[in-house]
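It is worth pausing here to work through a concrete case rather than discussing structure prediction in the abstract. The textbook approach is simple: state the sequence, then state the predicted structure, then interpret. We follow exactly that order.
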Amino acid sequence: MSRKTLILLVLVFNLFFAGSACPSGFSVPGGTLPPGSLKEGAKGVAYTVVKGNEVVSFPVTVLSVLPSARSPRNLILVRASGPVIEHTGGIAAGMSGSPVFIEGKLIGAIGYGWSFSEHQMGLVTPIEDMVEIWSWPDRVPSLNPPELKLEDPSSGDVRLSATVSVHQPGTETGKEAKELSAPLIGSGYSPRSAKRIEEMMGHPVILLPGGGGDLSLPVEYEPVLRPGEAVSVLVAWGDVSLAATGTLTAISKDGRFLAFAHPFANRGAVAFPLARAWIHQVVPSLDTPFKLGTPTSIVGIVTQDRPQAIGGFTGRFAPVMDISLNFRDVDSGKETFKRFKTASDPFMMTKVIPEMVTGLVDNVWGRIGEGSAKISLKIEGGGLVEGWQRTNMFFSTTDLAKSMISEFTDLVNAVSLNPFFEITPFGVHIDIEATADPRVVLIEDVSLSRNMVPPGGSFDVDITLRPYRKEPVVHKMTLNAPGDAQGICEVVVRGGGIEEPDQGSILMGWRTIRSLDELLKEFSAMETNDEVVAEVRSFGPLREDPSSLEAEEESQRKLRSQIKEEKIREGSFKSYRSNYYVDGLLRRMIRVVPE
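Step two, the predicted structure:
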């Protein structure tokens, strides 16, 4: 290829980028400019919202173009100025995504700045990098956008030999460029839960006092959005809320949008609701000024969360998870109902939701500390025709809310992330009855009516139970020795869940859980903390006959629920549920001999 031909191709390539559309087919009115066509000192204008929903502008000056060590491949160094910037104290968090135009053409959006520095300077993510998010497929079932390939951008002529490293949240030292993180505004839960959510999300959480926002955010089915408008990515809304507010960069003719000019949580293909946002104020800060905004209406869905930007579709909507909490305070007689919705992202939300529920309980109960609680959990959704429910009792000497949510976390994780099929929509309803009193009963003594029985023979067990600081009571159970037992056996009386047999068949590799029904059945078979359990434990007969190996192997394949059912049928296992958290374990010995 001749030198003249190469120059001609470069000119055509640059003209293509200066046209009305980006290589992904993302059509931008007025066209775009690549970084390679920018000159030092070029004047432009950026658009954002600093109060209410009015889009305002401020001047920017191009200082240079910096190559980056990773995507986005180029970052445009600019200086912002004018009355808007003077009023806000500089480029603020929440301005991320603010589109920047030069001569009417979009060059990209503000995405990065510096902490404890001159807030007038920032870095713009080029539009040619932002549109690369469309090279990945979406994972929302109702959306089937084509997989789009992007050509390499022009090398350009405005470069510095230095590089800028775009650090992930949490690694900033105050001197490095960092994302102008869309402020995560939350409410409805306690500060300690906000701190844990902040660690999980990788972004600071600004926790507002109060009980959350509007559960029934209005939905705009044919929204009209403008570049520079404030938008929020919804994580949760209702009596618990969490949303990240940034700026809309551009909208294509096909309804796709780009925003933020950096990732939200960098989760790739996602399905988060997108909402309009109302900006109450830009809050000054020595670190970085930030916008204080709240969502006002749902307008679309975020389907891509990538290093270059977030993007999705307006007028399309994401599935959600529905969480409700009914809390009864026994001590005060007060009953409170709370409800909120979250984005349907099981792998992320199964970590975040338990923290939100814990923080919600902290606020509703008005305290953190010791106590007892009965908690009923109901899970509903597609595929669970009648839903699934479990009730358990909890007690803690230090932190009841944290203690009783631990099982909730395990159950919701296992069901929502089950390997068999997706449950959508997914709903979790929690009913809690709590008191600061220790509603605990201790197994104090056990006595047997006989110390020798035949195989299958019955005997009585007297169990002395002492409620906390009250007089003891005696409860009687009748057990049967296993039909195949011989010799010395153990009679064990214990609180539910204490020394409960494990899933030996699964742990030893004899079998696996094969369906959601099996999974839920095993959860239902789990003992609860309010049970008084009495059982006979036997090693069974010795099997020396090789023909019995098949029967032995078959017995090893039984799940815990199957073993429990068999022991209940033969009468060697019995339990009853109390209104207390049952503590303690006692053993007695009994001899099983033929009559």
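Step three, interpretation. Residues 377 and 430 are 5 Å apart (CA to CA). The mean pLDDT is 86.
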